[in-house]
Amino acid sequence: MASSQQCTLLLSIMLMGSVTMAAPPKRPVSVPFGRNYMPTWAFDHIKYFNGGNEIQLHLDKYTGTGFQSKGSYLFGHFHMQIKLPPGDSAGTVTAFYLSSTNAEHDEIDFEFLGNRTGQPFILQTNVFTGGKGDREQRIFLWFDPTKEYHSYSVLWNLYQIVFFVDDIPIRVFKNSKDLGVKFPFNQPMKLYSSLWNADDWATRGGLEKTDWSKAPFVATYRGFHIDGCEASVQARFCATQGKRWWDQKEFQDLDAYQWRRLRWVRQRFTIYNYCTDRTRYPTLPAEVQRDRDI
Ligand SMILES: *[C@@H]1O[C@H](CO)[C@@H](O)[C@H](O)[C@H]1NC(C)=O
């Protein structure tokens, strides 16, 4: 017979079960921009709202702009809520990425390629390890990213790098050290975001040019909380490595539900994947083996 104590126990076990279920990264906490970030260039092209809880980047024919995190991080979960430039955004690129600052750098990129009014944005992702990139994947989004805020995030631990759009994994880069592929683990990264003109390549391969009569192009941001192990730029490891939530077992791989979502994104929205580009890579890079399993 179930006493109320047993019920409570059962309930808490069930709750624990849901808490320990794989990834969906923790809910963002709202903090002002200045707590964790600072402008990188063209300071006057960044506008602040609600005490800095929301900001806008402006791009006009004179300049784009960008910002970066004050701290450097080794592993964590890094997210940003972004509303992309509405209307005619052809030729523009909005980026959110992590990058180390050294020569043989590591980098994890989200790049949103603008388009003519009513035409879809492309989301391009890339991963650089030890200075080597050329790992582009491109997808269409399943919503209009200019209408509402959507969350774009990266989970980075010793086991995997996962790109999420609204908690749906769109790409996984597994640690393939066993296959001889470098994986970012000892070079702290800063977070960056920027909005700039790239009409030499961004939209339909550079055919569509930026229409400056539509300027300024405006990207809006919120969610400036950072979940990462802060380390000095020169650090080679993080003091709490292995102990933070993003290091734990349930974040070391996707769960069955997340694999299904990733496959859904793959099947429905992929435009380009370097892993299947035989013209570019007659011999495919080693990590592609892991990508193919998806
Ligand atoms: C822009 O729209 C065209 C036409 O729908 C499409 O071919 C292209 O992939 C879209 N995105 C970019 C960034 O070029």
UniProtKB/TrEMBL annotation:
<comment type="similarity">
    <text>Belongs to the glycosyl hydrolase 16 family.</text>
</comment>
<dbReference type="InterPro" id="IPR008263">
    <property type="entry name" value="GH16_AS"/>
</dbReference>
<dbReference type="GO" id="GO:0016762">
    <property type="term" value="F:xyloglucan:xyloglucosyl transferase activity"/>
</dbReference>
<keyword id="KW-0326">Glycosidase</keyword>
<dbReference type="Pfam" id="PF06955">
    <property type="entry name" value="XET_C"/>
</dbReference>
<feature type="active site" description="Proton donor">
    <location>
        <position position="111"/>
    </location>
</feature>
<dbReference type="GO" id="GO:0071555">
    <property type="term" value="P:cell wall organization"/>
</dbReference>
<feature type="domain" description="GH16">
    <location>
        <begin position="19"/>
        <end position="221"/>
    </location>
</feature>
<dbReference type="GO" id="GO:0042546">
    <property type="term" value="P:cell wall biogenesis"/>
</dbReference>
<dbReference type="InterPro" id="IPR013320">
    <property type="entry name" value="ConA-like_dom_sf"/>
</dbReference>
<keyword id="KW-0961">Cell wall biogenesis/degradation</keyword>
<dbReference type="GO" id="GO:0004553">
    <property type="term" value="F:hydrolase activity, hydrolyzing O-glycosyl compounds"/>
</dbReference>
<keyword id="KW-0134">Cell wall</keyword>
<keyword id="KW-0808">Transferase</keyword>
<dbReference type="GO" id="GO:0048046">
    <property type="term" value="C:apoplast"/>
</dbReference>
<comment type="function">
    <text>Catalyzes xyloglucan endohydrolysis (XEH) and/or endotransglycosylation (XET). Cleaves and religates xyloglucan polymers, an essential constituent of the primary cell wall, and thereby participates in cell wall construction of growing tissues.</text>
</comment>
<keyword id="KW-0964">Secreted</keyword>
<dbReference type="InterPro" id="IPR044791">
    <property type="entry name" value="Beta-glucanase/XTH"/>
</dbReference>
<protein>
    <recommendedName>
        <fullName>Xyloglucan endotransglucosylase/hydrolase</fullName>
        <ecNumber>2.4.1.207</ecNumber>
    </recommendedName>
</protein>
<keyword id="KW-0325">Glycoprotein</keyword>
<feature type="active site" description="Nucleophile">
    <location>
        <position position="107"/>
    </location>
</feature>
<dbReference type="InterPro" id="IPR000757">
    <property type="entry name" value="Beta-glucanase-like"/>
</dbReference>
<keyword id="KW-1015">Disulfide bond</keyword>
<dbReference type="Pfam" id="PF00722">
    <property type="entry name" value="Glyco_hydro_16"/>
</dbReference>
<feature type="signal peptide">
    <location>
        <begin position="1"/>
        <end position="22"/>
    </location>
</feature>
<dbReference type="GO" id="GO:0010411">
    <property type="term" value="P:xyloglucan metabolic process"/>
</dbReference>
<keyword id="KW-0378">Hydrolase</keyword>
<dbReference type="InterPro" id="IPR010713">
    <property type="entry name" value="XET_C"/>
</dbReference>
<feature type="glycosylation site" description="N-linked (GlcNAc...) asparagine">
    <location>
        <position position="115"/>
    </location>
</feature>
<keyword id="KW-0732">Signal</keyword>
<keyword id="KW-0052">Apoplast</keyword>
<dbReference type="InterPro" id="IPR016455">
    <property type="entry name" value="XTH"/>
</dbReference>
